[in-house]
Amino acid sequence: MKDPWVTREFRVFDLLAQRSGLPPLVNDILVMLDYKEAALIRSLRYVEPVSSFRTTFAYTNITHLLASRIVATAAGAPDWNVVLQKELLDPLGMKDSTYTVEAIEAAANHANGHRWTPEGTVEVPFTRIFPYSLAGTGDINSNVEDMARWVRMQLNNGSFDERRIVSSENLAYTRMPKVALNDKISYALGWYNWLTPNGNILWHDGDALSFGSFVGLVPDKNIGIIILTNETNVTAPNSLGAWVLDRILGNAKHDNVAESLKNAKTNFEATAKLFTKPANPRPFPPLAPLAGKFVNPSFGEAKVTLQGDALVMEFLTSGAKFKLVPRDGDIFVASLLPTGLFGPIVDLDYMTRGFAQFQMDKDGKLNLLRLSLVDGQAYEFRRE
Length: 384
Hints:
single chain; alpha+beta; 10 helices; 25% strand
């Protein structure tokens, strides 16, 4: 029996190095709120760089959506997936690899995804929104058998079964370090380059929120490792992959798995605590006067209405709604409502919660609404 389909993300070629000077995961919230490709790409023009170009590392997704469009246009193809099928999947014989939610749901032998919690995992449904709306960022459904073909091509310097897929020169360029993360790890083009005491490792992980993956290569030893899981990547695949590669290279033993589990629990508890209402919250302001229409360049228009004892913020571009529940004084917890196609997104629990605060403008009026997410990104909406 073939291996179950257990991942929906691996990176074939990262076409843009994640060195753009933009914040990490810039505007990913718009992806989760089902903004379309053109709106996602357009949103980047309103983001202020946080560093100069190619000086720091920041993991981004929408930049690769832009790269997907560039590649498709250059190839005269309607979209990235057409190029992917013709240039990679077909030549490598990756016949079980696809790139739509319909395809993985229709596969007879597929795994369902799970969200991780310290108490256990929770099965979550598939959604067409993530990662399928991100094209070359990582929209591929695959399995170990197909992934092994791609790894064999990597280890054979761009050839597979005596057929040249990519030039060895271009493939080598993707592995050249571009930005240092620390004294041992650098980022190249779609690969982390990890210098260990007994040799170099190329690796990358994937996280499709309810699936995780890890690919590690030791080109000098012609060794590749593939780990696929149907659970949120809280670094379990990475830790296991690092442990195996350390054993292969004869590096010192280190319990990566136990350490990662400890960190995952700590992070989970910290996030839960962040959203816990204080025992003695400050008085809440009257809610009715806060309602109205607001606008942000990236999000477009948003309508805030009073519904019961809370406010609801609806993004008119996609129809997504956040419920704003008073937490402490003028601070509200903002939670994505599981309406329609956003139900599975809420189940994934990624960028679906944050904080909202109504703030005064320069005239002393409550005309500003600040939406802050747990990843550190914040967006200012101005009352119309």
